[in-house]
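Troubleshooting: if your tokenizer reports a length mismatch, compare against these two reference records.
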Amino acid sequence: MLSSVQTPRLLRFQSFSLKCLHTHPTTTPPPPHSQILTIRKSLLSREISAVDLAGTFLNRLRNTEPHLKSFLYVSDVVLKEAEEIDRKIAENEELGPLAGVLVGVKDNICTSDMPSTAGSKILENYRPPFDATAVGKMKKCGALVIGKTNMDEFGMGSTTEGSGYQVTANPWDLSRVPGGSSGGSAAAVSARQCMVSLGSDTGGSVRQPASFCGVVGLKPTYGRVSRYGLVAYASSLDVIGCFGSSVADAGIVLHAISGHDKFDATSSKKEVPDFASQFTARDHLDSKPLKGLRVGLIRETIEDGVDPDVISSIRGAASHLEELGCTVTEVSLPSFSLGLPAYYILASSESSSNLSRYDGIRYGKQVFADELNSLYGESRAGGLGSEVPRKRTFLCEVKMRILMGTYALSAGYYDAYYKRAQQVRTLVRESFRAALDENDILISPAAPSAAYKIGEKKNDPLSMYAGDIMTVNVNLAGLPALVLPCGFVDSSSVALPVGVQMISAAFEEEKLLKVGHIFEQTLQGCSFIPPLVADELAC
């Protein structure tokens, strides 16, 4: 049990539930359902056509995009691809498991038929000659790529304000950030501009936006999903993850994109389980469906520096897990606070190497110059960084991290910084291993606060970096993590969603999805549909 006494803990959970009900007082909303399975059933029964379905999402995208700016590019062939699905249905041909599912793809994941710029002007209009393995698998399953979503340049940022093209807004409050760097993918799913989306997670870039936007975000084990076709930021940390409006949809997408790939030497040969087999409808659950499950609440994530309302929501989530039969205890990870500086040293060091290819000759927009060094310097200076007009008193995020990484790898500083950061990484892995030997899963907030105002932290990079403290340790250890909404934090204008992060041992996504699905199916009184589209979806 948690170290606090039983009565206060139950009171916290009651307050948490009432806050959800107060946010949406009209009716008690049903639990989230799988859009993918619902759509498949409707298509096969011919209740709806793929063309009509695609048209509905495209219309919603066009109506909301001027406010959100989630997408950098929208496909012009979606309706034609939907017609092909309708033809297959009419002729009783076999359909893939994702037939008709509209998916948004983060702009650093390669697509052969659309630009892939990684949110950077230096790659403006670049069209890869191939699909990323994850994208290819989605298409093979029948998914329709609706467009490329906005992101912080090369994945370096936590707000999506660092895009070279535009700033994405949060569907819950247009004055706030959606998180980053996969903010476009999270906002698109939250606003139902697409059904699911792909993102990348180097230090929390799927999980933090999922929390800010009130959607499910899944970061798989390093090696579970091929990185082939993902524009590299920090190769030992990067993973492709996914967003959905339900745990079931996230699990179905993960199953589609997982598996060994001969083009990625780091992809695992482990068998991919049928994640959907873990999903049980709420009506078929017994009173204690998670009886015997050991859950560790990471103590360092609910201490000073974390918004008290976020802590309250996470303790409420822990109490809900107890009601489902779990045994919840607080656990300490002694190396937890060391993970953040180690992560930024390692990620910056790897990025300084990976981004050296964008020199105007091998890749990137070239600036005319009379001398080679000038060509390199001017091409990189002009191509890296945002052209979005706003006050800037610091170097752009990409240039700053390249400089940090180059410094950490330089002669005389390698041992003091890079080598020591690798040693800390080993300590982080060992502390997680010890905690997961005693617990089946660990839980924590996905971020220290709910979504903050656009521009609030842009000129305070240290404060923005500190916001990654909840997520970076998971990447250092290469573990899977699932974030799903668990409550709300009241702001001055609107209630903002908060996500709980669940962490398991490597390649145990199946366990995370089972727990997460039961959690969301039994969570009462919360509807995680943003006001921007709530009225339309209620009709």
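Reference record two:
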Amino acid sequence: MKAPASSMAMSNWVFVFSIVVCFFASGSLAIENFHQAFPIVEPDPGHTKLRLSREGLEAIERITNPIAAVAVIGPYRSGKSFLLNQLLSLSCYEGFGVGHMRDTKTKGIWVWGTPIELDIDGVKTSVFYLDTEGFESVGKSNVYDDRIFALATVMSSVLVYNLPETIREADIARLSFAVELAEEFYGRVKGQDVAFEPAKLLWLIQRDFLQGKSVQQMVNEALLRVPNNDGNKNIDMVNQIRDSLAIMGDNSTAFSLPQPHLERTKLCDMKDGELDPMYVKKKEQLKQLVSSIIRPKIVQGKTLNGKEFVSFLEQILEALNKGEIPSTGSLVEVFNKGILERCLKLYHERMEKLSLPLVEQSVQEYHERSMEEVMKLFEDQHFGRHHAKKSVEQLQEEVDKVFKNVVMANEYQSSKLCEALYTRCEDKMDQLQVLRLPSMAKFNAGFLQCNQSFEQECVGPAKVNYEVRMMKMLGKSRSLFIKEYNHRLFNWLVAFSLVMVVVGRFIIKFILIEIGAWIMFIFLETYTRMFWSAESLYYNPVWHVIVATWETLVYSPVLDLDRWAIPAGVLVALFILYWRCYGRRKHGSGWILPLYNNHKGGSNRPRSD
């Protein structure tokens, strides 16, 4: 019983695997067959926004030639799909689907998978034909129709506005977005790159009789300003669109096309011979007109291949879906995104050249010069005339963020530098407090050098605060040094006088040194204690003479005795040692200094024998 069960399970897996293989096989076969219509943009479930269809994008991405697109727009049930099939010389059964019911057949935007190859100004160009969902159908919002209209306007090279019978006010109003795009992106200084060239607008009026007027006259009359004596805002808005369309006169043309046959529901089953001969003739003229005005799609100054066209389409769709209502401003933001990045990069590069820290005024001036360069770059390359203000504000906001970081970095580097200088001066003052040989001249020289180096090297916003700290620290150090200076010098001179008494009496045996040392010692200890207090000594002229002599000997720009005291003491000791051991034998007792003469036990004492 188990074997049949396992065999059945195996059969089920084989069946499922076969279905999967067949599914992928059929899918790949469908993708390889590009001689059919594909959706490239579809509505979302809410039928308010648009999304891309991967299937249709693959049909476009494979093209390596420059691309041009012909899009047909108009009300639903106006014969757009049938018209496209006629332009492509396709029947209804092999071309775009044609609906005979009262609901719209085409959803979103569809593309015919096989482009028509044309030689345009010596450039081999692949021309795609696009079918769009008709507007004013039931169950859709006006915002959705605007998105379809705007997307077709932006992505096409020729925009065929298919209108039955006549031109209504609503038909003109629907061009407001297309006109705004043309003014915003194409109304630039001649010779500069533009975001994209607007589509050539082709007014296609399907009407049998024009009452003796040409279709161009009919369009021109429809675009005349409407009197508005009551100041109606809606009429003002439509008149503004009329004015803009008049400005776009060189970018639009008009064409009339009679009805192909009275029995519209049977058109798909009719050959050209069964259709109205005038329609067939005009249809061929329309093909020639489209071929004569079409040009490769130009975006930022260059043509697009398939992959670039899809990338461009993704940008536009992102902008149109941004927010609840599609706006020219959102498109401007998308196209200016790259310009903003380049401007920010330029500003970064300029500010990175700063060698921080700097004084705040220098940083501000450099920021302003860099900002001038950035704004010049933005003015030369930005897209949009009326809605570029938001991009400028965004650029200013991003630049302000970068500048704020630069200011913070300048403050940090300034604090770091001034702190290092302050610490160095503080250490210097501490060293001067404990000199081996106290010297006011050396302290003043160190004090001045420290103060000058701080003033010259400490720069930036932190300098003001550190200057206050520096002055307080230097003032305290100076007061402390002066307070201790006289006392230390007095003690040092007392000790020095005693040392010189010993040296003059027992080592060198030079009586003048000993006498001088005794005089100094007596003056400092005995005389001062008898007649002055220790503090009053420091105001005595004799003490000033002693201090001046001391300062002259201890420190000068040429000789710093405090630094060389130990080496000099070693040299003197070596000299005395040499003289004591060898000098008197060789040169006699009076060689250099008048020494004590001791005749007791000497070699010149007369013998008693």
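Descriptive notes for reference record two:
- The radius of gyration is 50 Å.
- The first helix runs from residue 2 to 32.
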